[in-house]
């Protein structure tokens, strides 16, 4: 467009200069006559082509009226008078966090909500979404290019607050967290769809409970761990007691077998075997056989 304007000015200047009586001025006017059309042609050619970058679409506006046709990535031929507004249709991440370095808006931008039990809970949230290519003209007409501030941020924060009132703080932190996330996902998805946006994923990155609630949860967890430890100790003691009982029963059974199963002849036979082993050993000894049941061994090493 700038080249077109310059070309028009060059033609006007050439017209004025060519009417001057001085030869030098007239010659300069002829030069402008040549440069002017060249600038016009170059301006028209460059204005008639628009390159849309990958991951973007272009929306055409002519004298304030938005065209419903969308320009996709690549080289596009357009009316040189048309204004092109680019929209990013790739996945975008809008994060609201209490950390100064993580959120889209610097500073503490976490969402503070009141739960069903009247406690204040702080939530860090990330919203992953994209602009629907075919809906880009409607977004430009009805919302504008600042859809992050007009749609994404307020819709996400309102959905969080509206759904949190149905849950207690502890349930929101633990057992009902997935259920809560699914509910706000459906709420935000519906609102986004009506505005030309597509919700891809919703991430509850952190839930911060009041200090008093955190202390009670930690106390409960410690008590549960102590109870589990005591249960383990009792089970171990029971197993040890059972082992000792089985061992004592085995000893008693062994003694009973010895007392009832060994006869005098069996004992005499075992004694003879022991004497034979001693007599045949290499150690020097003297064996005195008496009238008793067992011999007397002298000098055995």
UniProtKB/TrEMBL annotation:
UniProt cross-references to Gene3D superfamilies, sorted A to Z: Band 7 domain (3.30.479.30)
Domain Band, chain residue ranges per copy: 47-221
Keywords: Membrane
Topology class, membrane: Single-pass membrane protein
Pfam families: Band_7
Cellular localisation: Membrane
InterPro entries given in the database record: Band_7, Band_7/SPFH_dom_sf, Prohibitin
Keyword field contains Membrane: yes
Protein's UniProt name: Prohibitin family protein
Chief place of localization: membrane
């Amino acid at each position: 467009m700038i080249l077109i304007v310059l070309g028009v000015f060059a033609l006007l200047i050439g017209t004025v200069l060519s009417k001057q009586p001085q030869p030098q001025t007239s010659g300069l006017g002829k030069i402008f006559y040549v440069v002017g059309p060249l600038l016009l042609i170059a301006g028209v050619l460059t204005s008639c082509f628009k390159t849309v970058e990958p991951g973007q679409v272009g929306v055409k506006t002519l004298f304030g009226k938005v065209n419903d046709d969308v320009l996709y990535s690549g080289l596009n031929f357009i009316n040189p008078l048309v204004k092109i507004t680019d929209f990013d249709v790739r996945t975008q991440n809008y994060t609201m966090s209490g950390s100064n370095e993580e959120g889209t808006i610097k500073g503490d931008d976490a969402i503070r909500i009141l739960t069903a039990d009247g406690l204040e809970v702080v939530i860090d949230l990330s919203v992953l979404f994209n602009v629907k290519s075919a809906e880009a003209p409607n977004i430009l007409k009805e919302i504008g290019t600042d859809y992050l501030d007009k749609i994404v941020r307020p819709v996400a924060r309102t959905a969080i607050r509206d759904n949190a009132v149905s849950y207690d703080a502890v349930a929101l932190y633990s057992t009902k967290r997935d259920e809560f996330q699914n509910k706000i996902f459906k709420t935000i998805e519906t609102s986004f769809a009506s505005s030309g946006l597509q919700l891809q994923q919703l991430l509850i990155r952190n839930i911060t409970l009041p200090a008093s609630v955190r202390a009670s949860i930690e106390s409960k967890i410690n008590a549960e761990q102590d109870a589990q430890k005591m249960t383990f100790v009792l089970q171990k003691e029971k197993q040890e007691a059972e082992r000792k009982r089985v061992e004592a029963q085995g000893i008693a059974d062994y003694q009973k077998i010895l007392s009832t199963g060994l006869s005098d002849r069996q004992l005499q036979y075992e004694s003879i075997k022991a004497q034979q082993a001693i007599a045949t050993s290499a150690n020097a000894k003297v064996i005195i056989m008496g009238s008793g049941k067992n011999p007397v061994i002298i000098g055995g090493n």
